[in-house]
Amino acid sequence: MKHYFLVIAILPLFCFGSLSFADSVKDEIATLTAPPFVPPPITRKTPAKLIVNLEVVEKKMKIADGVDYTFWTFGGTVPGSFIRVREGDSVEFHLKNHPSSKMPHNIDLHAVTGQGGGAAASFTLPGHESVFSFKAINKGLYVYHCATAPVGMHIANGMYGLILVEPKEGLPKVDREYYVMQGDFYTKGKFGKQGYQPFDMEKAIDEKPTYVVFNGSATSMTGDNSLKANVGETVRLFVGNGGPNLVSSFHVIGEIFDKVYKEGASEFNTNIQTTLVPAGGSAIVEYKVDVSSNLVLVDHSIFRAFNKGALGIMKVEGAENKEIFSGKIADNVYLPEGGAIQKVTDKELVSAAATVEDQIKFGKNIYLQNCAACHQANGKGIPGAFPPLAGADYFNADWKRAIDVVKNGKTGAITVNGVLYNGVMPSLGLSEEDIANVLTYISHSWGNKKRVFKKSDVSAVPVRKEKPAEH
Ligand SMILES: [Cu+2]
Fold first, then answer.
1. Max CA distance (Å), the chain
2. Rounded to the nearest whole angstrom, what is the distance from the C-alpha of residue 110 to the centroid of ligand 1?
3. Cβ atoms within 10 Å, residue 316
């Protein structure tokens, strides 16, 4: 009886209502995500009326370790929430401006065909909500941003994000998707200057950023916040650049992009090393991870990476693949005849240092050949780039940690004598004896706390597996 009833009930719909049935659009509320995460792929086979609820919040957050900044945000994060819609969707956009905001804001979505990308239609005072709608007719990955005057300042404060108009047929399946967006920031204080830092309009106009970062902070993707993947997986990065000023030479140290949808286009190119992401533009980048390593995401305008924060880590875990990458197989002595490097006698090369004086002497050579390029011959380092070893509280406080740094390298933010550093010190592959000698030399120089490092001290500090990536 039941079946019979259903057939009768549905039949007329198909006969008389087929047109409106096919055209009918369901209401759906868009799932938004904070970076580095991306909403799940859209599996719908038909267009929908999609409701997007996005709230503007002005809030203080960390831009680097020990440094706070007042960001203006779409959805409470920089970049703003990731929006994922399907090609052909009708989007009903609700822009709310939190009552605690000091400024009016709006949104210009590059995915919109229409006046100002929605800017005027979405102009919203604090404590108000604007609604407008648009049809997502062009597939692709688009930037959205605030376009309230002074536009540069709103963008410089973090008001941008990405909206993906997913093709009708969907994107090819991958194992992981991440959201990475670069931005340049302008603060009164220098890079790493501790405490609260206000916006500097002059630096912004001069296009001289203090910080260039991914996902709103120098530490957004380092340490525990590193992106993750397992060997054998395919990874898709939705990469954006909010600017306001710089273009990005997006690169992942230790990988080759199998596919790049340049500038968010519908077609892809293959086997790309570095892709340009314009201010107010995007790229979709895909690669398969084949070996375990720490991949380093950078802007290859490289001072930005090592001195302004544009650096993130993707930790790839799983088996090594010696065929694809062997790691260091040998470290042979290379002393060309008449070469410019310091002559070291055979005896010195092979014999262990007998006295502390020997250790200091050998250690000095090792220092000049391996460390001085960065930390400088006088141990004072370079402000903003390489921390000092001379009179360094960090070095003197913990000798086991000092061994660890030299043995395994060091990434992540550290504070030395009250100044923040967030660089990469490579693991140099020195022998345990060389490490003992160089540390003995450093600790007997420049007013440091004198300590004799023995080879056994160095052996006792374990080798860490995840070495910071080397270029
Ligand atoms: Cu704004």
1. 101
2. 16
3. 24
